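S., here's the first fold you wanted:
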Amino acid sequence: MLETLLSVLPIFGLVMTGFIAKRLLPSSDLWKGIEWLVYYLFFPVLLILEVSKANFSEPGLWGGLMATFIATMIIAVILFPMKRIFKIENTLFTSIFQGGVRYNSYVFLALSQSLFGSAGIVIAGVFMAYMIIVINILSISVLNVYGSNQ
């Protein structure tokens, strides 16, 4: 428990540093540029580099991927009856669905590195590459069915 807490503290500190920096640096154009670089350049490059290092013959890797897939599907399936039970509008449901099945890649990657070192980054990269595809297919499908087509 203490190890997990100590692993999360630097991530929390980094988020707080970003929050404070955004308040002190008023240029929104600067932040848009930084976000673009991280999201479209640095993050994909990191993901590709780490996945290329993965040992896909690891016995636990495929089981872990399958467990993650099944857990995501269970959450997705549970969300549909909730839409009916709580009488959620279609367009609102698309956002709730995405919030239910998505995860924060940045926190996941940082936590994996903090807890497991460089091996954690490799494994997290494989999981992220796999789950980004699965979650995007699910989210786009739900958006296509329940979205307002605007």
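And the second, which I think is the more interesting of the pair:
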Amino acid sequence: MTAIWKPYRKSLAPDIVRLWNRCMGAQFPMTERLFRQNSEGAPGFRPDDSTIVVVGDHVIGYILTKRFREDDPLRDQLASVGWIEAVLVDPAWQRQGIGRDLLAWAIYRLRSDGATTIYLGGGFRHFFPGPPADLPGLAEFFGRAGFKPSATVYDLKGNLRGFSAPPSAREAVLAVGGQVAPCQTEDVAALMDFLLAEFPGRWRYDTKRFLDQGGAPEDIMILRQGEKVIGFAHLHHRRSAYQGPPTYWHQLVGRHYGGLGPIGVAAAMRGKGLGLALLQLSLEHLAGLGVHDAVIDWTTLLDFYARVSFIPWKA
């Protein structure tokens, strides 16, 4: 039968999810909620940023590109950047040039829209920071199209059963006259001031979008010094309105899943043990919410997170 290329339609999301799970469901099990959130729900989404390949009534190929089109200061910085977030070909139809043709279409699509730099993964509402290491053959496949590998980043996993922060965590916070607690509605303005000053790029944007779309301020731990926020940590758990990256693959983690990230402290306050203290106190709070198995996503700081017994899980 002939393979037919079609533009993306929202009604096809369940078929694409089934295709995804045929391709890599064992390593990265997809749900319709997550797929829609990170495709249709991504900033600046347009249906023609993706395309599908159909044979008869079956979706056998799919690719998703992204561009940042929001009314935000980041738009100028990312005007020449595009992302390819997912490329899928049904295992029964692989090695017939469909993946190569989908990738060529995506590169042409992004370049035609003004992108001169194209990344594999890592866009806003990404599925992956980059090509997953546990999917063999990806480096060769993308390498033939001219893509080059960059630094390896990791998702880490740790057990929070019975976790409690050591006394040194509270001591470090008290030493600077600080306090760590879940963010409240009245704290949001101070939180955004902190992010604009310290992390004005993606972390600021993602946090603002999370809150603007109804995310609970309490899912963000803040480190305060008086009225000023000097640190934050975004928490994720099964009751969160937004399924954050640490919980994307929760079916592989267990029923009591959760995670953390991003986390950061003001530059002027570093070197005082506050980053570790904020991490420990935030994980203690997650454990109190019933999280047993937690993930910290997209990091290279293996030694730092090893201090709370988190180890590499995915790369």
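Why I say that: The first strand starts at residue 3 and ends at 7. DSSP finds ten helices and twelve strands in the chain.

Talk tomorrow,
H.
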